[in-house]
Design a protein that fits this description.
It is a single chain. Helices cover 53% and strands 16% of the residues. The protein has six helices and five strands. It has a five-stranded mixed sheet. Strand 2 and strand 3 form a beta hairpin. Helix 1 packs antiparallel against helix 2, helix 1 runs parallel beside helix 5 and helix 3 packs across helix 5. The radius of gyration is 15 Å and the shape is globular. It starts with 6 loop residues before the first helix and ends with a helix. 29% of the residues are buried. This is ZSWM7 protein. Pfam families: SWIM (PF04434). Keywords: Metal-binding, Zinc, Zinc-finger. It comes from Halcyon senegalensis.
Length: 140
């Protein structure tokens, strides 16, 4: 993870990762802190992780993106390198209103990375390009 999240959020995610690497559990131990830092998106993000809704999509060249199957059944593309999600909540609550650090989808990406619960899918360069362009066409 890079350092564009507030330091306290970065530190919490590192602690969660360490706890899961050492003991393979720790969700309950961090629930309160997650709720305190990330607010109402914490519990839905944990639910997405539990449902294994996060997939790392990677191509042979090393390009990556994450796809998160939202609770509504819609697939959202997330970019952890720049803390961005294609969902409407990210655009509204995070970018426009600054009410939250992250939406539940991008938080689920970070949590699934920390907990080792991220699925992986290798696709061709063309398939990854199609995934990325499909998001742009939906927005436009």
């Amino acid at each position: 993870m890079d350092s564009t999240l507030p330091a306290v959020a970065e530190e919490l995610l590192k602690e969660i990762k360490k706890a899961f690497q050492e003991t393979s559990h720790g969700r309950d131990m961090f629930s309160f802190r997650l709720k305190f830092i990330f607010g109402p998106s914490a519990v839905p993000a944990l639910d997405l992780v539990d449902q294994r809704s996060v997939t790392l999509v990677k191509s042979p060249s090393g390009r990556t993106a994450y796809q998160v199957l939202g609770s509504s059944g819609k697939l959202y593309t997330c970019y952890s390198s720049c803390h961005f999600c294609t969902c409407p909540a990210f655009g509204f609550a995070v970018l426009q209103k600054s009410e939250s650090l992250l939406c539940k989808h991008i938080l689920a990406v970070y949590l699934s990375q920390a907990m080792g619960a991220c699925q992986e899918l290798t696709v061709s360069e063309e398939q990854l390009t199609s995934i990325l362009l499909a998001e742009e066409e939906e927005e436009g």
